[in-house]
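During the second half of the funding period, the structural biology subgroup turned its attention to how the target accommodates small molecules. The most pressing case was pyridoxal-5'-phosphate, which had performed well in the primary screen but for which no bound structure existed. We therefore specified the complex as follows and requested a full 3D prediction, including the ligand pose.
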Amino acid sequence: MNGVPELPDMSAVGAWLTEGAPDNAIPEQAMSPIAAMRLIDQELAVEGIPERNLATFVTTWMEPEARQLIEGNLHRNFIDHAEYPQTFEIQQRCIRMLAELFNAPGETTGTSTQGSSEAIMLGALSLKWKWRERREADGKPADSPNLVFGGDVHVVWEKFCRYFDVEPRIVPLQPGKYTIGPEDIEPHVDENTIGVAAVVGTTFTGHADDVVGINDHLLDLKEKKGIDVPLHIDGASGAFVWPFLYPHSEWDFRLEQVRSINASGHKFGLVYPGIGWLIFREKSDLAEDLVFYENYLGKTDATFTLNFSTSSSMILAQYYNFVRFGKVGYRRLMEVMQENAASLAADIAGIGKFQIIGEGEETLPLVAFNLAEEHPYDEFDIAFQLAAERGWMVPAYTMPPNAQDVKMMRALVKLTLNRSLVDKLHLDIAEAIETLEKKGPVSKSERRLVKTSVTH
Ligand SMILES: Cc1ncc(COP(=O)(O)O)c(C=O)c1O
């Protein structure tokens, strides 16, 4: 040795350091586990930091014990009920717990899913099948089903209609009116309506449709015209928030026409992606024809899913949260997020440029806001500036028709956004505004980088 440090063996690290990552074909040669891990880890470093992603509703932090449970069960295929009966029992417990939380009147059924999208596809399929049963029993044609919902729904509802051949009857929004009520659905509902979908906790502003009003209208329709139209609640985000923050608000099975509810365990259920839930009011609300029976995994099993194999980890993690936090813990966690959201809303309003959307109404722990007046810059410029200066991901987006001229911004306040980060975010928004006041709107090329997605 002459004082020059010995270099590591570069062949063990891998050619990717200087040649780039394999991207078109599986490489012929192997690499060491550490090299493979570093290759992927280094690439991911260019992405946003999940804790600063205020666009997503999805959980970005869980307790170390929950992570341990998740890691320890990734290899347990949930669908192997015969081999893993206790995992199946734990899933059933979660379904019963959610049914109780949503005030189901008695014994019910449901399923875990990959997320709310799968839950909605399955729930809406059941609406279609049950409608067809009713039509056939009455000797009436069942060839032109429709589904009624507002423009405030997530894209999955339109996806369902296209994939499964149902006419979407979409109630348009209006500037300043971002949820729907009975007067909106009334002209669209008829005997071919398989159901009405109402949202509790919309993707766009976090508020709830007038579920009580819609339920009353459907009851009236049943009584006066004999048309029984079920109501499905899209509680992707809200079904884990409303029971704890607004326990006296009726949006669930306390209302007679509410026949099914979906919830995303990976949103305010506080579990990592992907886990969702579909809960029926009564067993009979699940169309029996949609349940498949097979015995290739060791015993006869009933399945009602679009997928088959999936890891057990997130189901176990959901049960972990239920028993770990209890109702008291969930309530406290929701209150923490709500308090921080209220503080952020007050701070943003205090900047003097913005209006807070639907302030004082029941909503998710988030702040939806937009510029109160015209400026040389807009919400998309602010989103860019905030990301460029501090790496915050606060999306800007336009509202659905007929409010498409309204621009909006939205910051989710999850557990990872504690009060000191709320204060920091407020100062960073104020600073971004200051920069834009001085330099004017951002350039065209900068605009292309703005985070605009609202759909999760
Ligand atoms: C109201 C609503 N419904 C459905 C979905 C789809 O949920 P998932 O991402 O769990 O499939 C979302 C996602 O944000 C949502 O906000």
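Two results from this model are relevant to the next phase. The mean pLDDT is 93. The first strand starts at residue 110 and ends at 113.
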